[in-house]
Automatic annotation (TrEMBL), chains A, B:
InterPro entries, alphabetized: Aa-tRNA-synt_II (IPR004364), aa-tRNA-synth_II (IPR006195), aa-tRNA-synth_II/BPL/LPL (IPR045864), Asn-tRNA-ligase (IPR004522), Asp/Asn-tRNA-synth_IIb (IPR002312), NA-bd_OB-fold (IPR012340), NA-bd_OB_tRNA (IPR004365)
Cellular location(s): Cytoplasm
Subunit composition and interactions: Homodimer.
PANTHER family linked: ASPARAGINE--TRNA LIGASE, MITOCHONDRIAL-RELATED (PTHR22594:SF34), ASPARTYL/LYSYL-TRNA SYNTHETASE (PTHR22594)
Keywords: Aminoacyl-tRNA synthetase, ATP-binding, Cytoplasm, Ligase, Nucleotide-binding, Protein biosynthesis
Protein name: Asparagine--tRNA ligase
EC numbers, comma separated: 6.1.1.22
Entry GO terms, CC: cytoplasm
Catalytic activity from the UniProt record: tRNA(Asn) + L-asparagine + ATP = L-asparaginyl-tRNA(Asn) + AMP + diphosphate + H(+)
GO terms, biological process: asparaginyl-tRNA aminoacylation
Organism this protein belongs to: Peptoniphilus lacrimalis 315-B
Gene: asnS
Aminoacyl-transfer RNA synthetases class-II family profile domain mapped to chain residues: 133-451
Family matches, as Gene3D superfamilies: Bira Bifunctional Protein, Domain 2, Nucleic acid-binding proteins
GO MF annotation: an example: catalytic activity, acting on a protein
Length: 461, 461
């Protein structure tokens, strides 16, 4: 059995040879004496044209085989006179394996994205989703390849956790207590001693803090795993379950952090452009006509680097009516971010050194005592795609901050240990994996880049 | 800044050059006029020897720098006259970045594995755990590399799920309902309409069913993600949170399934042997003296393939006192599995075609109607490491089985769709990632191959 991918890749090895292939019908057009089947086996974006003629004993049955039926076909691969493809398979034998009757939900017509979400188990059989999920897979691999080639250690942060990386954020609780009859203790509170872990646990919102522990042992590490937000936000950019990549580097300052983020993003895009040519052409044609130009712009330009203060100055001078007024101290909104990256610089822009009030406790306080060594990467078409920082490595400053925020110091004692025993400058960032997939495919809804998306009210499959 | 890994790898590029390195002290021995620091930056299993002399202004301070303090060192890499390493760094400048005082929990002495688990944030700084987690990372990458090179699509199965892949198994519940005050409906039952997803949800125990949907769209796919079991089993081989690899292949029967499993396991082991030579030597010396011989045996032999019925015959004839009596129909116990793989065949053995009563509903029923097309891979030293099957692709047989098991047919309707619309023979297997890491490192407790393990009563960090 030869895959259609292999036939397209090494066609010369198979021309004029008898081969056996298998797959599913994408189209089937019969006429009086012969017919054409477009067959896909899922391995290749383009399907293979199969020609069958009257000489086949089951010709009249083949003609009736319906969309998505599975077949095994023996035949000879020959050069094709006209048509789109330069080769086709002349069938000698076509065997029906599994029929698909006319209740098959994806009949040959355009379906809305909304409808396709209701059949998430079948939508990867469509061109769009076949392309999306293959590219998703390639991006994931490119990320591993990038970090492994640079000696980073891949690290699995815990999914179930008793701590909360951001000191906030809505979380899913994980429990084995019976909800019908929650055990209570003498004080009338939930008796977590009876829960599986003996305490209240949640699904992780970030692996960063644990990541730091590993960076201070291995130098360079990265996580790539699922993270969760129980936010009741029904937007095209939010899912309750999504994957995140979080590299963390010891003895690396904010500049190194930006260097790595820039190199990584370029590496991923190049990898996809090289390894999913047909898919990317398809996206550019049917999903987003500016896609390839935009990605090309990203890989071929050095990213801009400006401070938050410079960004505010630019926005204040802008002859533009922003919905959210601009003033030093505000958190940049998507409209601001997109103006900077799309209209001012027309390429990716790192914005650094944000006001400390709008950023997380673990970021390094700058000498001005007003800003922290944070960086956000803004890209045309999206806005923020990466967020990172140099971490506060000075225990006195970190402890004071945590106390000011009323954080539970006992719970974070291990995190402070990292500053007690051989602390050093270290930095890292987070890339939302699905954001990256959306960016590279041009898909506009996060539900359409996740195999089985989880959002408010939806955990089907 | 040059990494110690780079210095070891391309030593000739740096000999007699001035370089700057950073890292943490592993040992520091001063004498009257000079001293030696073993420095690690985490990137390399072996540390770099740094020699410092009286000519350094802060000589008397350097002598006092303690274990795990972080330093930045400038110096010249020179060939070393005697000693273990053929090169060392002659320090020109040693700068203390972060001291580690004498409360550092990992002072220079042997610590028990149990103690080290209590400092999971620091244990990767020890030789053993540095080696374990680097090898864990390499195994993960080797798995991706193996499948990607063969065109498999990496697929993220959902973590939060409303279905239960095995029709059994203890699961963690995921909820946003307030446990202190669970909302009830008119019937006095938990009102899941108020929960985040509008229904009862759990953490996945396997991505296999969703995996099948993707295999029937892409041909060859694999998952690699976390799975969960809320089993109250406090053993060295069970964790509540662990990672699993589940490849799934369309148009592939049980033989192809075994071919891929065998090729994958050999590929991973070879990759680690090539890319973690020092670590593997270390394990062989300090953790398990038979390790390298055992792994070499695995990569250099064709795996044996026998049926369950043959396995039972072998066990019945064995001159051996098994704790669990042998009889056709029993589930093989570890003692049986290890006898077959260690004493009879002395190499990995696939056992196929198990009695249907002891295997899952989704496995293909064989023509004898007594057995199913299942396969388990048994390896010396462990027993079962991989379990898989050819999936039941015939809707009538599958439906009957599910009904006999009183499964909720509505919930699995989408799974039956895969048999309704172009069904085909397909197969897959599951590899417990941590089991693989234990097997390849020789580590005996699953808690010692997971960065921050989750087990009954333990969700620290």
């Amino acid at each position: 059995m030869i895959s259609i991918r292999e036939i397209f890749k090494n066609t010369e090895n198979y021309i004029d040879k008898e081969i056996e292939i298998c797959g599913w019908i994408k189209t089937n057009r019969g006429s009086k004496n012969f017919g054409f089947i477009e067959l896909t086996d899922g391995t290749n974006f383009n399907s293979l044209q199969v020609v069958y003629g009257k000489e086949l004993g089951n010709f009249s049955e083949i003609e009736k085989y319906t969309l998505s039926s599975s077949l095994i076909i023996k035949g000879k691969l020959v050069e094709s006179p006209g048509a789109n493809q330069s080769f086709e398979l002349q069938a000698k034998e076509i065997k029906l394996i599994g029929a698909a009757d006319n209740t098959y939900p994806l009949q040959k017509k355009r379906h809305t994205m909304e409808y396709l979400r209701t059949v998430s188990h079948l939508r990867p059989r469509t061109n769009t989703f076949n392309a999306v999920f293959r590219v998703r897979s390639l991006i994931a691999y490119a990320i591993h390849k990038f970090f492994q080639e640079r000696g980073f250690v891949y690290f699995h942060a815990p999914i179930i956790t008793a701590s909360d990386a951001e000191g906030a954020g809505e979380m899913f609780q994980v429990t084995t207590l019976p909800l019908e009859d929650i055990p209570k203790n003498d004080e009338g509170k939930v008796d977590y001693k009876k829960d599986f872990f003996g305490k209240e646990t949640n699904l992780t919102v970030s692996g960063q803090l644990e990541d730091e522990a590993f960076a201070l042992a291995f130098g360079n590490v990265y996580t790539f795993g699922p993270t969760f937000r129980a936010e009741n936000s029904n937007t095209p950019r939010h899912a309750a379950e999504f994957w995140m990549i979080e590299p963390e580097m010891a003895f690396a300052d904010l500049n190194v952090n930006m260097d790595v983020a820039e190199a990584m993003l370029k590496y991923i895009i190049r990898y996809v452009l090289e390894n999913a040519k047909e898919e990317m052409k398809f996206f550019n044609k049917f999903i987003d006509k500016d896609l390839l130009a935009r990605l090309d712009n990203v890989v071929s330009n050095e990213f801009e680097r400006i401070t938050y203060t410079q960004a505010i100055e630019i926005l204040e001078k802008a002859n533009k009516d922003f919905k959210f007024p601009v003033k030093w101290g505000i958190d940049l909104q998507t409209e601001h971010e997109r103006y900077i990256t799309e209209e001012v610089f027309k390429k990716p822009v790192f914005v650094t050194n944000y006001p400390k009030e709008i950023k997380a406790f673990y970021m390094t306080e700058n000498d001005d005592k007003k800003t922290v060594a944070a960086m956000d990467l803004l890209v045309p078409g999206v806005g923020e795609i990466i967020g990172g920082s140099q971490r506060e490595h000075r225990i006195d400053i970190l402890e004071k901050k945590m106390k000011d925020l009323n954080m539970n110091m006992d719970e974070y004692d291990w995190y402070l240990d990292l500053r007690r025993f051989g602390t050093c400058i270290h930095s890292g960032y987070g890339l939302g994996f699905e954001r990256a997939v959306m960016y590279i495919t041009g898909m506009k809804n996060i539900r359409d880049v996740i195999p089985f998306p989880r959002t408010v009210g939806n955990a089907n499959y």
